[in-house]
Amino acid sequence: EAGVVQSPRYKIIEKKQPVAFWCNPISGHNTLYWYLQNLGQGPELLIRYENEEAVDDSQLPKDRFSAERLKGVDSTLKIQPAELGDSAVYLCASSGTSKYEQFFGPGTRLTVL
Amino acid sequence: KQEVTQIPAALSVPEGENLVLNCSFTDSAIYNLQWFRQDPGKGLTSLLLIQSSQREQTSGRLNASLDKSSGRSTLYIAASQPGDSATYLCALLDSNYQLIWGAGTKLIIKP
Questions:
Q1: Interface contact flag, B98 A45, Cβ < 8 Å
Q2: CA–CA distance, B44 with B39 (Å, rounded to integer)
Q3: For A101, how many CA atoms within 13 A lie in the half-sphere containing its CB?
Q4: How far apart are the first and last CA of chain A?
Q5: pLDDT over threshold 90, residue A4
Protein backbone atom coordinates (compact mmCIF):
# COMPACT_ATOMS: atom_id res chain seq x y z
CA GLU A 1 0.00 0.00 0.00
CA ALA A 2 1.44 3.36 -1.02
CA GLY A 3 1.87 5.90 1.74
CA VAL A 4 1.10 9.60 1.80
CA VAL A 5 2.88 11.33 -1.07
CA GLN A 6 4.04 14.92 -0.93
CA SER A 7 5.81 17.10 -3.43
CA PRO A 8 8.10 18.85 -3.72
CA ARG A 9 10.36 17.58 -0.95
CA TYR A 10 12.31 20.82 -0.83
CA LYS A 11 11.54 24.33 -2.00
CA ILE A 12 13.60 27.51 -1.81
CA ILE A 13 11.96 30.78 -2.76
CA GLU A 14 12.45 34.47 -2.20
CA LYS A 15 10.10 36.36 0.08
CA LYS A 16 6.92 37.70 -1.50
CA GLN A 17 6.88 34.86 -4.04
CA PRO A 18 4.02 32.34 -4.14
CA VAL A 19 4.53 28.65 -3.38
CA ALA A 20 2.34 25.56 -3.51
CA PHE A 21 2.60 22.14 -1.94
CA TRP A 22 0.82 19.01 -3.08
CA CYS A 23 -0.33 15.99 -1.12
CA ASN A 24 -1.88 12.69 -2.17
CA PRO A 25 -3.25 10.73 0.80
CA ILE A 26 -3.43 7.00 1.24
CA SER A 27 -6.06 5.54 -1.06
CA GLY A 28 -9.46 5.46 0.59
CA HIS A 29 -8.56 7.88 3.39
CA ASN A 30 -11.27 10.52 3.63
CA THR A 31 -9.57 12.74 6.20
CA LEU A 32 -6.60 14.85 5.20
CA TYR A 33 -4.52 17.13 7.40
CA TRP A 34 -1.96 19.84 6.74
CA TYR A 35 0.51 20.61 9.50
CA LEU A 36 3.28 23.17 9.88
CA GLN A 37 6.37 22.23 11.86
CA ASN A 38 8.89 24.83 12.97
CA LEU A 39 12.38 23.80 13.96
CA GLY A 40 12.51 22.27 17.41
CA GLN A 41 8.76 22.11 17.81
CA GLY A 42 5.96 19.65 17.29
CA PRO A 43 3.65 19.97 14.27
CA GLU A 44 0.76 22.41 14.39
CA LEU A 45 -2.48 21.70 12.57
CA LEU A 46 -3.28 24.16 9.79
CA ILE A 47 -6.37 22.58 8.28
CA ARG A 48 -8.34 19.34 8.32
CA TYR A 49 -10.51 18.06 5.49
CA GLU A 50 -13.29 15.53 5.59
CA ASN A 51 -13.56 14.57 1.93
CA GLU A 52 -13.67 17.93 0.11
CA GLU A 53 -14.93 19.94 3.10
CA ALA A 54 -12.58 21.91 5.33
CA VAL A 55 -13.95 21.10 8.78
CA ASP A 56 -11.24 22.80 10.83
CA ASP A 57 -9.27 25.70 9.40
CA SER A 58 -9.17 27.80 12.55
CA GLN A 59 -5.34 27.82 12.61
CA LEU A 60 -4.87 28.63 8.93
CA PRO A 61 -3.60 32.20 8.39
CA LYS A 62 -6.16 33.06 5.78
CA ASP A 63 -4.58 36.33 4.71
CA ARG A 64 -1.81 34.47 2.90
CA PHE A 65 -2.54 30.75 3.15
CA SER A 66 -5.14 28.83 1.18
CA ALA A 67 -5.89 25.17 0.64
CA GLU A 68 -8.12 23.10 -1.55
CA ARG A 69 -9.20 19.51 -1.94
CA LEU A 70 -11.56 19.82 -4.84
CA LYS A 71 -12.37 16.16 -5.52
CA GLY A 72 -11.86 14.91 -1.99
CA VAL A 73 -8.64 13.11 -2.85
CA ASP A 74 -5.42 15.07 -3.32
CA SER A 75 -4.90 18.51 -1.85
CA THR A 76 -2.88 21.66 -2.46
CA LEU A 77 -1.67 24.15 0.14
CA LYS A 78 -0.65 27.57 -1.14
CA ILE A 79 1.14 30.54 0.37
CA GLN A 80 0.97 33.90 -1.34
CA PRO A 81 3.01 35.94 -0.68
CA ALA A 82 5.57 33.98 1.33
CA GLU A 83 7.31 35.63 4.28
CA LEU A 84 10.61 34.80 5.95
CA GLY A 85 8.76 33.34 8.93
CA ASP A 86 7.06 30.77 6.72
CA SER A 87 10.27 28.76 6.52
CA ALA A 88 9.32 25.42 8.04
CA VAL A 89 8.41 21.85 7.20
CA TYR A 90 4.89 21.37 5.86
CA LEU A 91 3.49 17.94 6.63
CA CYS A 92 0.49 16.21 5.17
CA ALA A 93 -1.28 13.33 6.88
CA SER A 94 -4.34 11.22 6.25
CA SER A 95 -6.57 8.93 8.24
CA GLY A 96 -9.23 6.39 7.44
CA THR A 97 -12.74 5.98 8.73
CA SER A 98 -11.70 5.32 12.30
CA LYS A 99 -9.61 8.51 12.64
CA TYR A 100 -7.63 6.83 15.41
CA GLU A 101 -4.33 6.96 13.58
CA GLN A 102 -2.86 9.49 11.19
CA PHE A 103 -0.29 8.53 8.58
CA PHE A 104 2.27 11.13 7.62
CA GLY A 105 3.99 11.99 4.40
CA PRO A 106 7.70 12.90 4.17
CA GLY A 107 6.98 16.63 4.33
CA THR A 108 8.06 19.61 2.26
CA ARG A 109 10.88 21.73 3.66
CA LEU A 110 10.32 25.36 2.67
CA THR A 111 13.08 27.94 2.88
CA VAL A 112 12.14 31.57 2.28
CA LEU A 113 15.09 33.87 1.58
CA LYS B 1 -6.62 22.75 27.42
CA GLN B 2 -4.48 19.68 26.80
CA GLU B 3 -0.74 20.26 27.06
CA VAL B 4 2.00 17.79 26.22
CA THR B 5 5.48 18.18 27.65
CA GLN B 6 8.64 16.27 26.81
CA ILE B 7 11.60 16.47 29.13
CA PRO B 8 14.50 16.65 28.53
CA ALA B 9 14.64 18.61 25.30
CA ALA B 10 17.94 16.93 24.47
CA LEU B 11 19.77 13.85 25.70
CA SER B 12 23.20 12.43 24.91
CA VAL B 13 24.22 8.94 26.03
CA PRO B 14 26.97 6.47 25.15
CA GLU B 15 26.20 3.62 22.80
CA GLY B 16 24.87 0.49 24.46
CA GLU B 17 23.04 2.20 27.30
CA ASN B 18 19.36 1.74 28.02
CA LEU B 19 17.44 5.00 28.17
CA VAL B 20 14.01 6.42 28.89
CA LEU B 21 12.29 9.33 27.21
CA ASN B 22 9.43 11.02 29.02
CA CYS B 23 6.14 12.51 27.90
CA SER B 24 3.58 14.08 30.23
CA PHE B 25 0.08 15.37 29.52
CA THR B 26 -2.52 17.30 31.48
CA ASP B 27 -5.84 15.74 30.42
CA SER B 28 -6.41 11.98 30.63
CA ALA B 29 -9.32 12.06 28.14
CA ILE B 30 -7.39 10.64 25.20
CA TYR B 31 -8.01 7.98 22.57
CA ASN B 32 -4.38 6.96 22.21
CA LEU B 33 -0.79 8.10 22.48
CA GLN B 34 1.80 7.68 19.79
CA TRP B 35 5.57 7.92 19.69
CA PHE B 36 7.25 9.15 16.52
CA ARG B 37 10.81 9.38 15.33
CA GLN B 38 12.03 12.22 13.15
CA ASP B 39 15.43 12.35 11.49
CA PRO B 40 16.88 15.76 10.56
CA GLY B 41 15.03 17.24 7.60
CA LYS B 42 12.80 14.20 7.31
CA GLY B 43 9.19 13.34 7.95
CA LEU B 44 7.67 11.47 10.87
CA THR B 45 8.02 7.73 11.40
CA SER B 46 5.49 6.15 13.71
CA LEU B 47 7.17 3.88 16.28
CA LEU B 48 4.47 2.76 18.67
CA LEU B 49 0.81 3.55 19.28
CA ILE B 50 -0.79 2.79 22.64
CA GLN B 51 -4.58 2.72 22.89
CA SER B 52 -6.07 4.42 25.94
CA SER B 53 -7.09 1.01 27.32
CA GLN B 54 -3.57 -0.37 27.03
CA ARG B 55 -0.63 -0.04 29.39
CA GLU B 56 2.25 -0.69 27.02
CA GLN B 57 3.38 -1.63 23.54
CA THR B 58 6.62 -3.22 22.41
CA SER B 59 8.48 -3.30 19.12
CA GLY B 60 11.98 -4.75 19.03
CA ARG B 61 14.20 -2.72 21.35
CA LEU B 62 11.45 -0.19 22.00
CA ASN B 63 8.86 -0.30 24.74
CA ALA B 64 6.29 2.42 25.36
CA SER B 65 4.15 2.66 28.46
CA LEU B 66 1.06 4.69 29.24
CA ASP B 67 -0.29 5.73 32.64
CA LYS B 68 -3.35 7.90 32.11
CA SER B 69 -3.97 8.43 35.81
CA SER B 70 -0.63 10.15 36.24
CA GLY B 71 -0.61 11.70 32.77
CA ARG B 72 2.63 10.06 31.75
CA SER B 73 4.10 7.97 28.97
CA THR B 74 7.63 6.69 28.63
CA LEU B 75 9.58 5.36 25.68
CA TYR B 76 12.25 2.87 26.71
CA ILE B 77 15.07 2.16 24.27
CA ALA B 78 17.24 -0.84 25.09
CA ALA B 79 20.86 -1.24 24.05
CA SER B 80 21.01 2.09 22.24
CA GLN B 81 22.83 2.38 18.92
CA PRO B 82 24.16 5.39 16.98
CA GLY B 83 21.39 4.81 14.45
CA ASP B 84 18.86 5.63 17.17
CA SER B 85 20.02 9.25 17.08
CA ALA B 86 16.99 11.34 16.11
CA THR B 87 14.27 13.49 17.61
CA TYR B 88 11.51 11.56 19.34
CA LEU B 89 8.05 13.13 19.57
CA CYS B 90 5.02 12.00 21.47
CA ALA B 91 1.51 12.92 20.38
CA LEU B 92 -1.84 12.09 21.83
CA LEU B 93 -5.20 11.92 20.12
CA ASP B 94 -7.65 13.95 22.15
CA SER B 95 -11.43 13.58 22.44
CA ASN B 96 -11.85 15.78 19.32
CA TYR B 97 -9.65 13.45 17.25
CA GLN B 98 -6.92 16.09 17.22
CA LEU B 99 -3.27 15.21 17.64
CA ILE B 100 -1.64 17.22 20.42
CA TRP B 101 2.14 17.18 20.18
CA GLY B 102 5.10 17.53 22.47
CA ALA B 103 8.11 19.52 21.29
CA GLY B 104 10.29 16.41 21.14
CA THR B 105 13.47 15.10 22.72
CA LYS B 106 16.61 15.23 20.58
CA LEU B 107 18.58 12.06 21.26
CA ILE B 108 22.26 11.64 20.45
CA ILE B 109 23.90 8.25 20.87
CA LYS B 110 27.67 8.57 21.05
CA PRO B 111 29.71 5.74 19.49
A1: yes
A2: 8
A3: 13
A4: 37
A5: yes
Q: What angle do CA A24, A101, B93 make, to 5 degrees?
A: 125
Partners of A40 on chain B (C-beta within 8 Å) are: 9, 103-104
Distance CA A98, CA B38 (A): 25
Q: Which residues pair with A22 in a beta bridge?
A: A7, A76
pLDDT band at residue A1 under the 50/70/90 scheme: low
The SS3 assignment for B85 reads: coil
Answer yes or no: is pLDDT of B103 > 70. Answer: yes
Q: Is A22 left (phi over 0), alpha (psi -120 to 50) or beta?
A: beta
Please tell me which of the candidates A42, A56, A103 has its beta carbon nearest to residue B104: A42
Mean residue pLDDT of chain B comes to 95
Mean pLDDT of A90-98: 91
pLDDT at A98: 75
The answer to whether A32 touches A77, Cβ cutoff 8 Å, is no
Q: Which residues of A touch B (CB under 8 A)?
A: 40-45, 56, 89, 91, 99-107, 109
Contact A23, A6 (CB under 8 A): yes
